[in-house]
Every structure is written in C-alpha cells, then in structure tokens.
Amino acid sequence: MKLLLVDDHPLFGVGFAHALTQAREGLSVVTALTLQQGLAAAASLPDLDVVLIDYRLAGDDGLEGLRRFGSAHPLVARVLISGLEEPSLLQRARLAGAAGFLGKSLTIDQMLSALDCVCQGGECFDVKPSKGHDKGLTPTARQLEVLRLLVQGLPNKRIALELGIAERTVKLHVTALLDMLGARNRTHLLVRARETGLI
User: Fold this and answer.
1) In whole angstroms, what is the distance from residue 89 CA to residue 95 CA?
2) Is the pLDDT of residue 59 over 80?
3) Does residue 43 come out as left (phi exceeding 0), alpha (psi in the -120 to 50 range) or beta?
C-alpha cells in the first residue's frame, strides 16, 4: 500500500508515517506539507493508492483539497484526516469526494483497517471503525472470488494471476477477510467461511 499524507504539521506527518510503516510491512508513506506539494508528489507516484488530506491545512481547505485531487487524480482514493471528529464533517467529506474519514484519535490498527477498506474500493466514514465481523459486514464480490480461490489452495501469486490483479491487492483482500470473519490464519478463515455459509 502506498499512501500520500498532506498535512502541514511536520511532526505529525513524520510520526504518522513511522507508526504506519512499523505496523505494516510493505506499506510506504510519502508526506507533503501543502496541497500544491501533494498534487506535485501525486503526479510522480503512478502506483499511489490513497491520499490523506488534513482538514485544516495552512492556507488551504482540506475539503477543497479533496475536490482538487479528485480532478487531478481521479483514480486515487481520497481520505480526509482530522482531529475534529464530528458527523457533519464526515458528511461534508463524503460530498467532497472522499472515500473515507480518519479521526486523529484512532489507533494505528483502526487506521490500517479503514485504509484497507478504502484500498479495496470501499468507504469508511466511522469515526472509530470497529472490526468487520463485529459489524456484520459481508464480503465484496472480489473478496468472494479471492475466497473461492483460497479454498482451492492457491497461493497469492496464482490468485493474482487468475483474477488479473496485483499480488499486494490479493494480500489486502485476504487481510480484510481475516478481519471480517475474525479468523486467526488462512486455515481458520476457511473454517469460519464454512461456518458462516460463504463457501
């Protein structure tokens, strides 16, 4: 997963990037202090998955930033990040084109869970997202395809080839399924999938 954080507080940016990269192997975070820097950075990152934009940027509005990123980079998922965790702001972020909202009080695990959801094409506007299996969520069509191939015993690389997607995307889908069904590992995932009638 490759992220771009646009936040005008350097210490938060450095701390956020360090915490996420320590918590998830293979994740990378590029930081920018202004909207203009962020737009320029995104133009040089063809494999960018998500841009996170702070609501209160010096000289810029984060909601306007969401709209500008949507115009310039429509294929990159956009997420608003803020210390102001109010339902009205979540709604405004959604209207501005965001796929999600992250409150700065969230734990790193909660942030990663929300980012996984967004990377898989979903939306996450919970101020404090809970585990998927606690919310009764159902897998997406793509996740069910991944699950079907997992049942056949295929490794991530083969699944990626079968579905025509990147191997890292397969890993994200597997992680989401593990979280959604409360499974400890792949073997337990198949057990839980049978118990819940998914396979």
Assistant:
1) 10
2) no
3) alpha
Q: Are 30 and 49 in contact (CB under 8 A)?
A: no
Give me the mean pLDDT over the 85-97 stretch.
Answer: 83
Average pLDDT over the chain reads 85
In this predicted structure, the answer to whether residue 107 has a pLDDT above a threshold of 90 is no
**Residue 191, Cβ density class (10 Å: 0-12 exposed, 13-18 middle, ≥19 buried):** middle
What is the CATH architecture assignment of 134-195?
A: Orthogonal Bundle (1.10)
Look up tokens 């049942």; give the residue.
151
Spatial separation of the C-alpha atoms in residues 36 and 126, rounded to whole Å: 28
| Entry pTM | 0.61
pLDDT at 134 over 70: no
CATH 3.40.50.2300, applies to 2-129: yes
**Residue 51: phi, psi to the nearest 5?**
-110, 130
Q: DSSP letter for 55, please.
A: S
Q: For the chain, give every domain's residue range.
A: 2-129, 134-195
